[in-house]
Amino acid sequence: MISQGTREQKILLMGLRRGGKSSIRQVIFHGMQPIETLYLESTTKPTSEKLSSLANFVIEEIPGQVDVTNPEFESSKVFKGASTVIYVIDSQDEYLLSLQNVVQVISQGYKIDRNIHFEILIHKVDGLSEDFRLDTKRDIIQRINDDLVDIGAYDADVTFHMTSIFDQSIVEALSRIIQKLVPELSSLTQLLDMFCMRTGVEKAFVFEASSKIYLATDSSPVDAEIYQVCSDFIDVSADLGGLYGTSANTGNSDGREFSTSRFNNGSVICLTRLIKGCLLVCLCTSETDNKITLVEFNADVFREGMEKIYA
Amino acid sequence: MVAPSRKKLLLIGRSGSGKSSMRSIIFSNYTAFDTHRLGATIDVEHSQLRFLGNVTLNLWDCGGQNSFIENYLTTQRDHIFNLVEVLIYVFDIGSQEVPKDMETFKRCLDNLQEFSPNAKVFVLLHKMDLVRVDRREQVFNATMMTLHAHANEFKFQLTGFATSIWDESLYKAWSAIVCSLMSNISALQSELETFAKVSSVQEVVLFEKTTFLLVAHATSDDMDSSSQADPKRFEKISNIIKSYRQSVSKLRTQLHSISLLSNNCVAVLEPLTSNTIIMTVLPKHSADTNMVISNIKASKTRFEELESKSNDLP
Ligand SMILES: Nc1nc2c(ncn2[C@@H]2O[C@H](COP(=O)(O)OP(=O)(O)OP(=O)(O)O)[C@@H](O)[C@H]2O)c(=O)[nH]1
Ligand SMILES: Nc1nc2c(ncn2[C@@H]2O[C@H](COP(=O)(O)OP(=O)(O)O)[C@@H](O)[C@H]2O)c(=O)[nH]1
Ligand SMILES: [Mg+2]
Ligand SMILES: [Mg+2]
């Protein structure tokens, strides 16, 4: 097995102008309020974000005015070494141009490296009605797949996501996208399954603390509501703590932390700090005083397991 | 049982200034985003809200379109301005018709002086988010100067706040407004001080349960002197917990309590009486929160008594 610990994984963020690339970057990595993105200016130079946690990721926005069909576009330089291409399609706009463009992007990237994951975001779906949303999704997937067959790239690795910066869908999608790139994902999932089973916990997530992208979860299905509340509790505990102290709650402070939030139906969310800027957040539906102690104890065991994986 | 006392609050200001928005956020769990759905208020919308058990806030949200305002100031003036405890006048900081706003404000004060001369007057300079951050203080001070000049001929003291639905400032203003109507705040306050001493905690903060408005707080001297704590923390806590409560409701349950143990802060947030939530902040590096939780349980009855004390001012 190759150690990927030090290599940076390159993720390209592409799509036509005003599709929402910068908005996504700002909302996820800089805590910008979705509504503030209205005032974002057009991006003219490639701009990148770093996410250093279980692996080192670089997310690079390629400005929309870059024309991939222009002979001066150095496709080999751009796509070389990229693990993933995220392509943003504005679903509220006339999207035919975007579809043409995304097929060109896939065809060029695919030529350079067949293993690139192409992740298509059908974005800004907050503006579409429920019915229209499904129709749009079907239409976009159909057209792109047809075109890929036409150009002989039918086995490119393409995944579609419906997203909006106005709800959790964008973080969910990015979580799924980035998880594919976590080399130790299967060991982590196993470790989480064991944690859930031994502790009697319903659901557990490993979050990257600052972006709130989840890098791993146990193998039970993800419930959007549970995910959302767990993610919001990270904010609550960081924000409340921030009112009383200065040591910024950034990815690097791996100090001791254990917070809980109880609900009237007897369930509890527990949050504890792991290593490498990660948090373990889990939901127990039946709570007893012993349960919390058990969670705290087993979370330590989990942390040790993680330390071994990343030793 | 003491009958709850009723307090009439008038909410006035030009149409679109944000009156119904703030009312919906504070008293009906709207998010700032939800307020885009609100339509213009027709005539007066009344809402009755219990606060700390024995006070009923009778909120009159007066639709601000010109024709309505004209009626309030003429044919309906005794109906509107009679028996008012608090006037909350909302100014849209981005208004294009400042002279007219000032004129209407003066006419309202005139009627208030006639029908409810003992009322308290709060002015909210609202939609501050639309003003550049570095200019807000200056805009606030300048506008307050103008307002004071206009209110000069009346005997009311104006209390002013800069507010926006997009940050926590709304909670600060409304906490001050509502607490000005409660007669038992100082008793609750000194009880909190005792609690803080006995439990040797850094800070105790009491919130009303449904609105999450600040009721009172007690802060230990050593925390007061370390300037680490955010001066806007109380309204920020209201804002943080209220939106978290909304989020929790998606799990079809309600928030009961929170306990935090981190390098920055050790704190617990627990229900105290049926109308209040208490937050206690312990010294950093405290390892155990059980002790303070039992102190909270032990002081429940005492706080219940204080809360239910008659609210009618002599
Ligand atoms: N930017 C900004 N917009 C706000 C703020 N408060 C309210 N608004 C918006 O202003 C619009 C009008 O708000 P309302 O609360 O309906 O105004 P109103 O004062 O009740 O108006 P009438 O009922 O006609 O008197 C809504 O779209 C709100 O979202 C604020 O603090 N900042
Ligand atoms: N309704 C809606 N608008 C969005 C969403 N994401 C971005 N936008 C808006 O789309 C516009 C263009 O965004 P920008 O990020 O600059 O696009 P870029 O050129 O791809 O970087 C901005 O006005 C954003 O507010 C979304 O999920 N929903
Ligand atoms: Mg951009
Ligand atoms: Mg209204």
Automatic annotation (TrEMBL), chain A:
Domain of life where this protein originates: Eukaryota
GO cellular component terms given for this protein: fungal-type vacuole membrane; Gtr1-Gtr2 GTPase complex; nucleus
SUPFAM superfamilies registered for this protein in UniProt: P-loop containing nucleoside triphosphate hydrolases (SSF52540)
Sample GO molecular function, one term: GTPase activity
Assigned keywords, A-Z: GTP-binding, Nucleotide-binding
Family annotation (Pfam families): Gtr1_RagA
Keyword Manganese: no
One GO term of the biological process aspect: positive regulation of TORC1 signaling
InterPro entries: Gtr1_RagA, P-loop_NTPase
Job description of the protein: GTPase involved in activation of the TORC1 signaling pathway, which promotes growth and represses autophagy in nutrient-rich conditions.
Assembly information from the UniProt record: Component of the GSE complex.
Family to which the UniProt record says this protein belongs: Belongs to the GTR/RAG GTP-binding protein family.
Name of the featured protein: GTP-binding protein
UniProtKB/TrEMBL annotation, chain B:
Keyword check for Transmembrane helix: no
Database matches in Gene3D superfamilies: 3.30.450.190, P-loop containing nucleotide triphosphate hydrolases
The keyword RNA-binding is assigned to this record: no
Keywords on record: GTP-binding, Nucleotide-binding
Any single GO BP term: negative regulation of autophagy
Gene Ontology molecular function: any one: GTPase activity
Oligomer and partners: Component of the GSE complex.
Similarity remark: Belongs to the GTR/RAG GTP-binding protein family.
PANTHER family in the cross-refs: RAS-RELATED GTP BINDING RAG/GTR YEAST, RAS-RELATED GTP-BINDING PROTEIN
Name of the protein this chain belongs to: GTP-binding protein
Organism from which the protein derives: Starmerella bacillaris (Yeast)
